[in-house]
């Protein structure tokens, strides 16, 4: 077995175990393979193992792979990076999901630019659950208003919420944030019936996130290995 296959099977095992521990079906958690900075050949190799959903952070890096892999008809691309309003068009035209919508202007542009012959673009509202300054995402008490707006836009489908909790080694602190996210999600999902997705949990905290009700974990490092670009020097967006 290749390292990539071993890594992938190990993540699937961890997902399964975490679900069992929380009395949840493993079908209730989607695995998003975060392939940012990794080549199309690696995406194709993980696709061959049965994986269908892939996450990209950088527009050009993601578009290169989408273009190279159009023969994989049932592959599903999620945009999970920071999105500037002048870069919304390629996202609206080529991705099935956007997980990082945090303001009205971006939502409106995505809806306007979604091609008429494509299904509605699935949208998650990014929530700054740790209320850190300079961090992307709406504050928790602003989430409802943005959800309302998105639910009324014709070419978007409001599917749920996403967060990147504080990078902290303090498990209790992290757990408090993930639980706050779960509570916010439950409250809004009761109001917006199309909501079925709570995207939280990465390589380091997927078990805790699943225990807190995550329905989608976003795993990069533990599948693909360490990234080729340092975080402070991403490829051109
Ligand atoms: C890179 C990234 C991930 C994956 O993180 P890993 O720790 O490598 O698993 C998940 N979500 C977002 C938004 C990311 O940018």
From TrEMBL:
The keyword DNA-binding does not apply. The modification N6-(pyridoxal phosphate)lysine is found at residue 36. The keyword Manganese does not apply. Residues 20-227 form the Alanine racemase N-terminal domain. Coiled coil: none annotated. PROSITE patterns: UPF0001 (PS01211). InterPro entries: Ala_racemase_N, PLP-binding_barrel, PyrdxlP_homeostasis. One of its GO terms (molecular function) is pyridoxal phosphate binding. Belongs to the pyridoxal phosphate-binding protein YggS/PROSC family. Pyridoxal 5'-phosphate (PLP)-binding protein, which is involved in PLP homeostasis. This is Pyridoxal phosphate homeostasis protein.
């Amino acid at each position: 077995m290749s390292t990539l296959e071993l890594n992938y099977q190990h993540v699937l095992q961890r997902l399964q175990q975490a679900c069992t521990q929380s009395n949840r079906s493993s079908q209730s958690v989607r695995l998003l393979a975060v392939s940012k900075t990794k080549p199309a050949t690696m995406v194709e190799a993980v696709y061959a193992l049965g994986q269908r959903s892939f996450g990209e952070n950088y527009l050009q890096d993601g578009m290169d792979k989408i273009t190279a892999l159009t023969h994989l008809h049932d592959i599903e691309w999620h945009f999970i990076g920071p999105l500037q309003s002048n870069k919304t068009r390629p996202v609206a035209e080529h991705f099935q999901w956007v997980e990082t919508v945090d303001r009205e202007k971006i939502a409106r542009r995505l809806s306007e630019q979604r091609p008429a012959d494509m299904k509605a673009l699935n949208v998650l509202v990014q929530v700054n659950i740790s209320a850190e300054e300079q961090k992307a995402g709406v504050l928790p008490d602003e989430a409802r208003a943005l959800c309302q707006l998105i639910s009324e836009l014709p070419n978007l489908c409001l599917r749920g919420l996403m967060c990147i909790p504080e990078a902290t080694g303090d498990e209790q602190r992290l757990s408090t944030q993930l639980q706050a996210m779960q509570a916010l999600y439950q409250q809004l999902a009761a109001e917006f019936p199309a909501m079925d997705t709570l995207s939280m949990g990465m390589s380091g905290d997927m078990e805790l996130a699943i225990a807190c009700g995550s329905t989608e974990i976003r795993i990069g490092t533990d599948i693909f290995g360490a990234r080729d670009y340092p975080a402070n020097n991403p490829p051109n967006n």
